[in-house]
Amino acid sequence: MTSPTAHLRGAHRHAPWVSLRCAGGHAASDPALWRCPDCEAPWELATSPEFDPQAIDTTTWSLWRYAAMLPAVPPITLGEGGTPLVRVAVPEGEFLAKLEFLSPTGSYKDRGTAVVVSHLRALGIEEAVEDSSGNAGASLAAYAAAAGVRARVFVPAHAGAGKKRQMAEMGAEVVEVAGGRGAAAVACRQDTGAAAYASHCWNPLFLSGQSTCAWEIWEQLGGSVPDAVVCPVGQGNLFLGLARGFATLRRAGLVAAVPRMYAVQSAACAPVAQAWRAGWPQPVAVDEGVTIAEGILTSRPVRGDEILRVLRHTGGAAVSVADDEVRAAQRHLRGAGLSVEPTSAVAVAALPLLRDQLAGAEVVVPLTGSGLKTL
């Protein structure tokens, strides 16, 4: 029997090299480097295909229907993407929910991980390391297993037991680190050895994968985009991937304007919301704090300046919510038949705060992680 993804094999016959540069103009001498060694800035793709609706592969409903617009790599796929867009009404408000928690490993991270691991495998890399609070590590473990790549994941010792089990059961080595999310990142970068650092925070290919979510929304809305998107933000990878994806649609002349983008953080750790209120060009580091929304516990996002630029350029805003508001939103989502982890409920919890700004708007909220992970 032919594999459902067999038609993807050989879809990219280009060399696996992806050209990278930083904001300072430095070019990467090695495509496996995780950041610019000269200025320590994150890499960006030096060139990227523009969006072409005629190039969509309509024979598949996964993110690889947009293969022509993604970096040229043979895909490692578990069927990621193609998530439903459904209308939801809860006490916090009515919106269209993009059900990213139905991804293969139960979180939106699979879009970015699929593209990153495909690239690493094309380079012949046999081992990858990552630091994660849970979902990114679980995603890397699964895609590394599919690619035949060894995975090692550094996690805070207090990370959710279910997510750590998910990583281990997929064959990843789980390294628990005392301290917070930042401590896990430091420990990981100090102990990569010969492995590639497959960081979802730093790798621009991860953002390429996340952009496919915007393109799916455009298709699901019949060739249009919503008025606004409200998104939980830690590192802001999904937020930025969506923003970049919508921007490519506008550059292609397919939409007249991009949605207003709203970033939502936990009040326990809200560097973006703090910088937004103060009018700063970039966030400053804050204490990680303690929150049930552990997936967005980020003291200073790598691309925080870009997040703030997107907020300004799209007419959006950044807000923060307390854990009690998140619990209520999570409970109301369950009442609507949607089981999500607390981090996913953060954006829904913010809807009452944004009620005046969103009045009459068509709003999309991505629900990012499955509630099954926290049972």
TrEMBL record:
The keyword Lyase applies. Pfam families: PALP. It comes from the Bacteria. Keywords: Lyase, Pyridoxal phosphate. Its cofactor is pyridoxal 5'-phosphate. GO terms for biological process: isoleucine biosynthetic process; L-serine catabolic process; L-threonine catabolic process. Coiled coil: none annotated. Residues 76-369 form the Tryptophan synthase beta chain-like PALP domain. One of its GO terms (molecular function) is threonine deaminase activity. This is Threonine synthase. It comes from Micromonospora narathiwatensis.
